[in-house]
Write a structure and sequence with these properties.
homodimer; Alpha-Beta Plaits; about 25% helix; 10 strands; 2 domains; globular; 5 helices; alpha+beta; about 240 residues
Chain lengths: ~240, ~240
């Protein structure tokens, strides 16, 4: 058996998300597994760096998979790209140490959230951005984002209750103004369920002057999901980078 | 009656092109006319700067339309964007002189052709680029493009025979190398049927070393469509700009 690392890019628009859901053909994991199984002629299970929600995109998702094959990486990559649909691309296939685990070995991940800020509708970008009608106070959002950085209990920013630890470290939130867009990059050692979307939704309320910057500390301290902002739409989210 | 100029952007992927085709709802012209007719409650005919083929996109298409209405431009724009599908956007609505004609008054137009040059498949750009497998000799393409500039009979670059004049002036062809793409901008005072796609197809053959630069003059002089290159796919074409 060889352990293979796959770097994957996808347009999540028409999928139910990364994670396999029974036999549904509408998950990215299922699509890739089915093609691999045809190539290696045995059942496979790919391990992603983490799930992405329905409609969320990936510029770089990473997975590993144990294969019983003598096919080389170049052949595997070509076969995958030949048979995967046009909205999923495998950008790299390399053999890795047998102990490499795409989920457990993550050092940090970066998500990008794209906000469309032009008064005209996005056309070519419409599936990858969330439209915002009003002008945002970006400087206020940057100040609020700073308060989220560091090691905190982010329970209030998770859409699912869990008994596991909800402590994570956000290394950096970068907010950039582009020509027609605002880009929010969130880099952390791990993300809770819907955490990026809940953080962006909260920062949006700050930018819209519906919420004071000081409420950020209160949300973190009280650990109450109801205090945080509304969850931002999935289509604005792109898994941007995974570091090992 | 007022004469209204519309600036329009669209993703042409799912349309049969700009031009109305009977009652088909799959043309951009039909979509816009139907929404306008609901607003002004009379039949309308919009005049585009020119047709775009099935699958061709527009960053900026321009049209004019005579309306019998007291609605102002802001209201017309909002109404159009509210009821048009998400792949058509009206970016500007202004009242113009009653003599303004979106086709006859064009001074020049620019088309952009996007070639995808990365060994990985395009994901987010896939509907707007044409994938090229081999590395192109861009310098040779630039030399060939120079020979196309100027006033020539471009009959060999038209996919349709016509008794009308096939003389046009290409003011400039600009070829830019981007990170993963090559962009070809063609600015001319007018374009024959499929002219951009036939020019790009010919330049591609030059870049692939399948054709010598010197054949360009021969194609122009002999006016024979069979001598020019194969027509490049529609999805790589974007109507980029129209000048009046």
């Amino acid at each position: 058996m060889v352990n293979i690392r796959l770097d994957i890019s996808y347009d999540g628009t028409k999928y139910l998300g990364w994670q396999r859901l029974g036999d549904s053909e509408l998950t990215i994991q299922n699509k890739i597994e089915k093609v691999l199984e045809r190539l290696v002629e045995h059942e496979v299970e790919i391990i992603g760096s983490g799930r992405t929600d329905a409609g969320v995109h990936a510029r770089m998702q990473v997975a590993n998979v144990h294969l019983d094959t003598d096919k080389n990486c170049k052949t595997i990559k070509e076969y995958l790209n030949k048979y995967l649909p046009e909205d999923i691309s495998v950008t790299s296939v390399i053999e890795v140490d047998e102990r490499f685990h795409a989920r457990f070995d993550v050092v940090d991940k970066t998500y990008l959230y794209r906000l469309w800020m032009n008064e005209n509708k996005p056309i070519f970008e419409r599936k990858y951005v969330t439209e915002i009608a009003e002008k945002l106070n970006v400087n206020k959002m940057i100040v609020a984002a700073k308060l989220l950085e560091g090691t905190h209990d982010f329970k209030a920013f998770s859409s699912k209750s869990t008994k596991k630890s909800t402590i994570r470290t956000i290394n950096k939130i970068t907010i950039e103004e582009k020509e027609n867009e605002i880009h929010i990059y969130v880099n952390a050692n791990g993300f809770l369920y819907n955490m990026v979307r809940n953080i962006v939704g909260t920062l949006l309320e700050v930018g819209q002057n519906k919420r004071e910057v000081s409420t950020i500390n209160e949300i973190i301290n009280k650990k109450d999901r109801k205090l945080a902002g509304e969850r931002a739409p999935a289509k604005g989210v792109t898994l941007y980078n995974v570091n090992y």
